[in-house]
Write a structure and sequence with these properties.
This protein is mainly α. The chain folds into two domains: about 5-385, no CATH class; about 415-495. The chain contains 20 helices and seven strands. The chain has helices at about 5-20, 35-45, 60-70, 80-90, 95-125, 125-135, 140-145, 150-170, 175-190, 195-215, 215-220, 220-245, 250-265, 280-290, 295-300, 310-330, 345-360, 365-385, 415-425, 465-470; strands at about 270, 275, 430-435, 450, 460-465, 480-485, 490-495. The strands form two sheets. Strands 4-3-5-7-6 form a five-stranded mixed β-sheet. A hairpin with a 2-residue loop joins strand 1 (about 270) and strand 2. The longest helix is centred in the N-terminal third of the chain and has 31 residues, at about 95-125.
Length: about 500
């Protein structure tokens, strides 16, 4: 990449990182963050990996390094809740501990955005690379989930690096580049176990489309696949083995555990229905409702302007995204679009290809339309600040929790905002039913009690969107409330 385009890409990534950093102190710890940071602290401090091993250690080590250096420690004593509370509430520096942990998330975001930019540049050139970076770094849910100390942003980085390595291998199918692909695959697995399926499927989808039009690839098909099968798994296994400290028990134990969780099912809610096994359509609908309309329109309209090489490139990337989405439809963990966050790498590549084709169109109106869509994407992204991951597009209307809840909108992130509102209103006693592991006493809340969805009460009541939809609060129907962030409703119920 030439110096000027590279500088623009770096600037776009830097702006996105700055935007994400401004949210670090806005949101309270979400449901899973204490577990992931605690797992890293446990590994550093106790040299063991027992706290929820269903996720690999790499991201957790990155998240926990700065908190560790800042004095945060994991307390392995007590029950699970007490262990989790030791992570962020230790030393009375809750917001500081959160901030330090979330800095580590930027590492994976930069990797994901840079790998996407490099992949797009290799395949389509500098302008497409800039467009792809702009679309990726202004996608609200990318900014949102990548700003939390969870594995979703890391998984996105793993897929992006793997697709970049796949591009290198397709260009020159040598053993060295197959080894590079294997290393990238190993890195992705260390980011999140879902990459064990996502990366091979995405790469296979690209390869199938490529050989459909490339006679040279068809002639060397057997030799190339033999080299890949011989080299990629071995290199990937070595990288994973090294990432687990040259042991295998924790890896296979964690993998077996997450398979058991998926097979057992998970309580999910969508469109008013509850299920333990989920729905095949859950993730396609989540993507439809939580992706900016500008990107969706580029994907819908842009293909009509694709010609020859651009059409093939767009088809390859789209096939990779569809492969990831198809795999996700088999999951029972229908609790958030974040589980398919990596598909936004090939999806953004496809959208950038469509935008490039529209910009090359001879008709000025189509070029203007493409520029307008990109501009709208930036405006919508700015308006979404700081509530990036709870973002829904206009298709979801004003009450998106009617369709999807859980980490799509309510992941326990607005407790600090609730504390501010409670103090402002001088609330003396508060009923609560909130998502997440927050220690309200440690955060300085007034006396509080657990509100009951089946038992009407009076006074101040804070109900999260997840609780409202999952458990039903008919006695609150029609009562006025104050919106706290995107995920909490604060009611004042008067005596009847």
């Amino acid at each position: 990449m030439h110096r000027k385009p590279a500088a623009i890409v770096a600037l776009l990534i830097s702006i996105a990182c700055a935007r994400m950093a401004t949210t670090f102190r806005v949101f309270s710890a979400t449901n899973d963050e204490a577990t992931h940071v605690g797992g890293g602290l446990e590994l550093i401090g106790q040299h063991q990996y027992r706290l929820q091993p269903e996720n690999p250690p790499l991201a957790r080590l990155v998240f926990s390094t700065l908190p560790w250096l800042g004095g945060t420690r994991f307390n392995p004593h007590g029950d699970f809740t007490q262990q989790l509370h030791s992570v962020f509430y230790g030393h009375g520096k809750y917001e500081r501990n959160l901030f330090l942990a979330r800095i580590g998330t930027l590492f994976f975001f930069v990797i994901a955005a840079a790998a996407l930019a490099m992949w797009t540049h290799r395949e389509l050139g500098s302008l497409a690379s800039i467009i792809a970076t702009l679309l990726f770094t202004t996608q609200p849910i990318i900014l949102g989930y990548s700003a939390l100390a969870t594995h979703d942003g890391a998984a996105t980085a793993g897929v992006a690096v793997s697709l970049l390595a796949m591009s290198y291998w397709l260009e020159r199918r040598t053993p060295a580049r197959a080894a590079l692909l294997g290393a990238a695959f190993g890195f992705s697995v260390l980011c999140k176990f879902t990459c064990l399926a996502y990366v091979p499927l995405a790469c296979a989808a690209i390869y199938v489309i490529r050989i459909a039009r490339d006679g040279t690839l068809r002639r060397t098909l057997v030799r190339d696949l033999a080299a890949v099968i011989a080299i990629v798994p071995i290199v990937a296994a070595f990288v994973v083995w090294a990432g687990y400290g040259f042991t295998v028990s924790a890896f296979f134990g964690g993998l077996a555990s997450i398979i058991r969780v998926n097979n057992a099912g998970f309580l999910s809610w969508a469109f008013g229905d509850v299920s333990m096994k989920g729905w095949w359509w859950y993730f396609p609908v989540a993507v439809l409702l939580k992706t900016t309309l500008a990107l969706l329109l580029l994907l819908a309209i842009g293909p009509f302007f694709l010609r020859e090489e651009l059409a093939w490139r767009a088809t390859e990337a789209a096939a990779a995204a569809v492969a990831i989405l198809a795999m996700a439809t088999r999951s029972t963990l229908d609790i958030g679009v974040r589980y398919v966050l990596p598909l936004y790498v090939p999806l953004t590549f496809t959208a950038a290809t469509c935008a490039l084709a529209m910009l090359r169109d001879r008709r000025r109106v189509m070029r203007g339309f493409a520029i307008s869509l990109i501009a709208v994407q930036c405006i919508v992204s700015a308006i979404a600040h700081p509530d990036y991951f709870p973002f829904f597009n206009a298709l979801a209307g004003r009450e998106p929790s009617r369709y999807l809840i859980d980490s799509n909108i309510d992941w326990g992130q607005d407790v600090l905002r609730l504390r501010g509102a409670v103090r402002e209103l001088h609330v003396a006693r508060l009923g609560v039913s909130l998502m997440g592991p927050a220690d309200l006493d440690a955060l300085g809340f007034p006396p509080h009690f657990n509100a009951d969805s089946g038992q009407a009460t009076t006074g101040w009541i804070a109900i999260s969107e997840h609780s409202l939809r999952m458990f039903g609060w008919s006695w609150l129907d029609g009562k006025p409330y104050r919106r706290i962030g995107r995920s909490i409703r604060l009611y004042y119920v008067r005596n009847q």
